[in-house]
Amino acid sequence: MIQIQFLWWAGCPSHPEAWQRLQTVLQDMDVDALIESVEIKTEADAAQWRFPGSPTIRVNEVDIDPGAPQTYRLTCRLYFREDGRPSPLPSEETIRRAILHARRNST
Fold this sequence. Notes:
By secondary structure, the protein is of the alpha+beta class. It contains 3 helices and 6 strands. The strands form 2 sheets. It has a 4-stranded mixed sheet with strand order 2-1-3-4, covered by helices on one side. Strands 5-6 form a two-stranded antiparallel ribbon.
């Protein structure tokens, strides 16, 4: 079974939409996943969870963005769309690729 961690910080307004995108992709792909939603509340939490910003999604312990920052703190996260434009949210395609990768590596 695919395991997903959804890490978020309440100070960042984009996490509800990211959560919805994740749910949409899982439904579209007919994926049954074990999802752990973790609210990051303190800088200590950020360090403990290796949290590069909100929202962060990990599939089978791998960040969906291979270029994720290696600094861990309470902040909003920046992603890049397929066309190179910045976005506060991961694209559905980025989420989909991570799930496909996890499926291939779990068989």
